Structures are given as structure tokens and as C-alpha cells.
Amino acid sequence: MNSTKGFIVDSPNALIIGKSGNSQIVTATQGSITFGGDSIDINGGWSLYSLASIDTSKTIEIALTDAELKMSSLALQNGVTVQSKAKERFIFGQDYEVIANKITLPYEVVAGSVLIEGFEETGAILEAGKFTVTVGTGTTDIEFFAGELADGSVISPIFRVEIADTETVEVLNNSFAGTAKFILEYPVYGDKDDETTLLGYVQFVVFKAKISANFAVDGSYKSASTFELTATGQDARRPDKKVFEVNFFRV
Predict the structure, then answer these.
(1) Is the model's pLDDT at 46 over the cut of 90?
(2) pLDDT tens profile 211-220
């Protein structure tokens, strides 16, 4: 059988299978798998060169960069699950115009959550420096002391609203990422400059890898954020002693 030759000129797709059988697909914008190891040199006699090298350890490092936010990936990195719960969302940075001593928010706010710089909420009779909050169906009115704010004044309140069925990843002080099976699949081309010459796919299968808890989100204006996921290969302690394998599947 002829040995396959080709070019990898694309990022991998990655399949991560947890110990409980749950799976996660990462469509990476960048991905790498690095195999390494350490050894000890044995020296003796008058020679300036080592007489032998003894392998002491081997390493597998997996690094994936994803430009798509996946709550399931965040849960995987922290050893928890994605839940659906009612959560309170902080809303801030939105401007509202004062008309007739009042602004109207298009939300039903959580009682007691409204903060306005320079003002204080009151449930009593209005006076200077105070405001009242009236929660209606789908809206909330905030009223100020008569004549304190001119029509057209802009107010930027901070407040909370409750959102039902919120996807949430709750990380506890004893949460930690576990291990998983990693399959990285790269397309292989016959010509590095021609993606129509697809020969097949090469899959790197790491039977057990410890997922790192490191997590970073980098964000910049009008550019997609990226999310990092890294893992370190471990001995799966399989009866066949396999740690990883590389398979090429022709198309």
C-alpha cells in the first residue's frame, strides 16, 4: 500500500466526547495538535557526546480557537452543564429622553433595581433629587420631581429585568474540567494551492485528554471574538495500550 502524501491547508473540525458520552463539536478557526517528549542524556568516559538518551515522558498538547460562542464549550471547560433558568439581566448604557418629567423603559424592571446617578428612588411623595418607579405590563415609568429636568434631557438608568429560560453556565468554587476523547479532522489536498484536489481526511484520535480550565475571550470593535480551548493528552490505560492514533480516510 502506498503511503499517503498531501497538504493540510485548513483548520480542523474537532469532536470532543466526554466520559458520560456527551459530545461537543468545535468548528475551529485555528487548531493544532503537538506531540513532544523529554529525555535524559547519559554521558560517560572522555567523549563530549552523550552515549545514550533515555525517554522519560511524552506529551500531547491540543489547542483550538473557535470564533463561535458555544455555551456547551464553556460548560465543558468548567466541568459543568448548560442549564435553563430564570436570570436577571443588567441593562445599562441606554439613553432615554425626559418628556413631562418622565421617562418610559420598554421593560418590566425588577423592583428596587433602578439606579440613576445623582438621584435616589423613593416610594413617597416626589421631591428634588428623587424619582418614583411604576412597573406596568411590558413597560416601566420613571418620574422625576416637577421642573427638575427639562424636556429633552437624557437619562441613562441602570436596572435589571428577569429573563425566563436563560441559558446559563454556573461555575462553582469546586468545579473543574474533566477528561475527554478528542478527534481532530483535517482535510488533505493533493495541491497546496488548489482546494479542488481533496484527497481525503486525516483524523488524529487522542483517547484521553485533560481539558484545561483556561478560558479567554478577546473582543474588538466589529471583529469576531475568539474562544480558546486547550487540552493535554493522558494515558487512557486501555488494554491495547493505545494513547493516540492517526487515520487517513480517502474520499
Answers:
(1) no
(2) 987 777 777 7
